[in-house]
UniProtKB/TrEMBL annotation:
UniProt keyword terms in alphabetical order: Oxidoreductase
Keyword Zinc attached: no
Protein name, UniProt field: SDR family oxidoreductase
Residue span(s) of domain Ketoreductase: 6-189
InterPro entries cross-referenced by the UniProt entry: KR_dom, Sc_DH/Rdtase_CS, SDR_fam
Family annotation (Pfam families): adh_short
Keyword Isomerase: no
Family named by the database record: Belongs to the short-chain dehydrogenases/reductases (SDR) family.
Length: 266
């Protein structure tokens, strides 16, 4: 799919992969709808993009409240925005805690934000794409949505759900002009680990060595956009073990499980 003059709605647009997607897609001529919780931050980002607020839109929303109200709210914005050609479900939150220690509320929040948020946004924007017989749904899952490791049982469960959801959606929309792309990033240099939830649901407020030494976010986003333009179905993006993990798990599951059990992820 071409990017120039396309309207792209991005959740989680205030930082990390979402922020860099705004920058790179806008540089390629896209009109961006920026969504996250922090309106002031989104406004400043939109102002910094080519064309500023005259070309891009700011729509604050909270993916933790992914219900019919959110669907109706998002659909109501289309009267001003017009057709949305690409939805990028990027908003999400990670986890760093052992299952045995973790409050059930943490699992619920991880599922609401990472999975139900993507489902609700897709529910809101897919009908108009189907009516036009044109569009693209991009969901940012994770390598954790392909393989499981310590300290991420809730995050991995939600991201596995995103992969399964997108597989089903791809099959349902294939004959209707809507393309579905699943992105599975590995360790990328963002604040995802710093903001990850601990066992009680608070941000852990520290980084991981794997993230510090991971792929630069600019490179990750270049690969995402390349996959969009080439209309890929699913891509894994990462370097080192985080990028190879799904392949190792697929062809050498026993080896992967032994490595995962012995690895310290903190």
């Amino acid at each position: 799919m071409e990017i120039d003059n396309k309207t792209v709605w991005i959740t989680g647009a205030s930082s990390g992969i979402g922020l860099e997607l705004c920058r790179q897609l806008a540089a390629k001529g896209a009109r961006i709808v920026l969504s996250a919780r922090r309106k002031d931050t989104l406004v400043e980002i939109a102002k910094s993009l080519p064309g500023g607020l005259t070309r891009h839109w700011v729509v604050p929303l909270d993916l933790a409240v992914a219900d019919d109200t959110l669907v109706t709210f998002v659909q109501g914005q289309l009267a001003e925005i017009g057709p949305v050609h690409i939805l990028i479900n990027n908003g999400g939150i990670s986890q760093r805690s052992l299952f045995i220690d973790t409050d059930l509320s943490v699992y619920r929040k991880l599922m609401e934000v990472n999975y139900m948020g993507s489902v609700a946004m897709t529910k809101a924007l897919l009908p108009s794409m189907l009516s036009r017989q044109n569009g693209m749904i991009v969901s940012i899952s994770s390598v954790a949505g392909k393989v499981g490791t310590k300290l991420r049982s809730g995050y991995s469960g939600a991201k596995f759900a995103v992969v399964g959801f997108m597989d089903c959606l791809r099959a349902e929309t294939a004959e209707h002009g809507v393309h579905c792309l699943t992105i599975c990033p590995g360790s990328i240099q963002t604040n995802i680990a710093i903001n990850a939830l601990n066992a009680s649901g608070d941000a852990q407020n520290k980084n991981d060595d794997s993230i510090i030494n991971g792929m630069a976010v600019e490179e990750c986003v270049r690969d995402i956009i390349k996959a969009m333009i080439n209309e890929r179905d699913e891509v894994v993006i990462g370097k080192g073990f985080s990028g190879l993990a799904p392949t190792i798990k697929r062809f050498f599951p026993g080896l992967f499980n032994r490595i995962s059990a012995k690895t310290e992820y903190r």
